[in-house]
Design a protein that fits this description.
GO terms for molecular function: protein-disulfide reductase activity. This is Thioredoxin. With 124 residues, the chain is an alpha/beta fold. The protein has one domain: Glutaredoxin (3-Layer(aba) Sandwich), CATH 3.40.30.10. It is built from five helices and five strands. The mean pLDDT is 93.
Length: 124
């Protein structure tokens, strides 16, 4: 199994490191979550250098609240500790593969520069 179950204890060290981390917020009772799971698993197996985490929103309600999850499944991507994507909804496998490639192709120096510019801009 290429996905890992993440909890409040394991999430922070997982997303704060270097590399790409995908998070799937899901619940056992959620039909779209169950439909999305095989795609997520297949893409995780094809990308062993990426962490594909699963967060059960029923078991980890505090994490779901912290990340303001209001709809599941919700997919988030962190790269080098920076949230670079967040969107609710199940994706078909080809779209998920494109999303993973997009995360790989990101120019993180440019992302960090943009964040620094936003943080330095005067607040209205």
């Amino acid at each position: 199994m290429a996905t890992v179950d993440l909890t409040a204890d394991t999430l922070a060290p997982t997303i704060q490191g270097d590399g790409i981390v995908l998070l799937d917020f899901w619940a056992d009772w959620c039909g779209p979550c169950k439909a999305f799971a095989p795609n997520y698993e297949a893409v995780s197996e094809a990308n062993p250098d990426i962490v594909f985490g699963k967060i059960d929103t029923e078991a980890e309600q505090a994490l779901a609240a912290e990340f303001q999850i209001t709809s599941i499944p919700t997919l988030m991507i962190f790269r080098d500790g920076i949230l670079v994507f967040a969107q609710p909804g199940a994706l078909p496998k080809p779209q998920l593969e494109q999303l993973v490639q997009g995360a790989r192709d990101l120019d993180m120096e440019d992302v960090k520069r943009q964040i620094a510019e936003q943080e330095a801009a005067p607040q209205a």
